[in-house]
Design a protein that fits this description.
2 copies of one chain form a homodimer. The first copy, chain A, is built from 11 helices and no strands. By secondary structure, chain A is mainly alpha-helical. In chain A, helix 3 crosses helix 4. The relative contact order of chain A is 0.10. The N terminus and C terminus of chain A are likely disordered. Chains A and B meet through helix 9, helix 10 and helix 11 of A and helix 9, helix 10 and helix 11 of B. Chain A binds a DNA duplex (30 and 30 nucleotides) through helix 4.
Chain lengths: 214, 214
Amino acid sequence: MAADTAAGIAPDTSDFVPSAPSTAERLASVALDLFVRRGYDEVTTAEIAEAAGVSQRTFFRHFPTKLDVLFHGTEEASAAFVEVLYGRDPELPVGRALVDAIIEHDRAFPLRPDDVSRVLVVRTTPSLSDAIAAYEVRFEGELSRWIAQRWRRPEDDFDVRVLAAALVAARRVVVEEWSSSGGAVDIGELARRAIELVSVPGAETSGRGGASVG
Amino acid sequence: MAADTAAGIAPDTSDFVPSAPSTAERLASVALDLFVRRGYDEVTTAEIAEAAGVSQRTFFRHFPTKLDVLFHGTEEASAAFVEVLYGRDPELPVGRALVDAIIEHDRAFPLRPDDVSRVLVVRTTPSLSDAIAAYEVRFEGELSRWIAQRWRRPEDDFDVRVLAAALVAARRVVVEEWSSSGGAVDIGELARRAIELVSVPGAETSGRGGASVG
DNA sequence: ACGATTGCGTCAGTCGATGACACCTGTCAA
DNA sequence: TTGACAGGTGTCATCGACTGACGCAATCGT
């Protein structure tokens, strides 16, 4: 029966119709809509599946967990951010480069309506703020790799891990503050301020000055 | 339930028998043992309940979630740490006071066998590291209050939240590093090093110097 | 002694998540 | 054309965390 909506369009070799959302797309879209209207916890995966016209089993074939359907579509932005990060001038201090990356990424990936909805859902669901924290921690590894490369130190170096953890945490607060304003405030300004608080500007350069890292 | 250990002493005029573990105590003890032996994910709440001689329903009457049974007994230490924190000299810079608190708390609450087991369980259960992150975030609020008081700023001040988040994250790495060594390394040294990396020493005092925070 | 509280058992049910099996459809090679 | 194969799906059954409702028994306060 799902073939009616999806496969029915496939043989259509004429002009491509952008309105041929995949099952995953439909699930994510419908889910976000339901989450916004009734709250994350009040919506069951079975409901989402039904609203998308598929079985619950199919839901879980596309999204390993309920949380993943909420974050569908954010992976590209995350990956892009990492890329921007590695694109920064290796001579810049870590903090400065991170601020630059946040600003540039904001330009390349401005807030979309779906992002705003997502933030709304997260902010109105206490149990989700925990999940967010867990999500963020995964980014720590990524940032550790980046810092380790710049400092020419191993990834699991204590200093590297500490700074990565601190920066990820600071960035989380920045994004929180920013997204709770709906993207109105200048994220670059927030980032600059936050990172000045957390890392000594100029103390660590690409080669690591070692000034304050005793 | 707490009556057995604390208030239970009042009516108990005879000798107090320490070998009268409450149901919660028994559940937690049995659970930790099972977790260590077979892994957190391989042990069901029903098993824990059975091993403790109660029904599964009773398990959930004592512990809202499976995670809570693992962390049973850590609340006191956490509360004590907060107390130590507020006991620091208000004139000390935030970073320095935090390091002091970590050291003093370590002296007052050295690692117990159960703590070591807990760390082992957490470290061998990937899905739990996420949960840990979530747990840690709750501490952020506490630290925000503390910093806000020292800086005489509101709790939800941006700078306060950033520093709190960064410090909690740094502390998490410190505790990770320390507990993965079984408590062998000097946690004070780790803490000092980590916090020097994250906050400018001497830059912010009780009144906030504002030197590098502008 | 009596009503209230507390602790627990039992039963049934919800919800997230997974495994097993079968079906249908499109593709590609023989 | 035929047949093997893969991808996406439905159905059924089940697990495991967790909750609500009801009832029983020991204990506690007055």
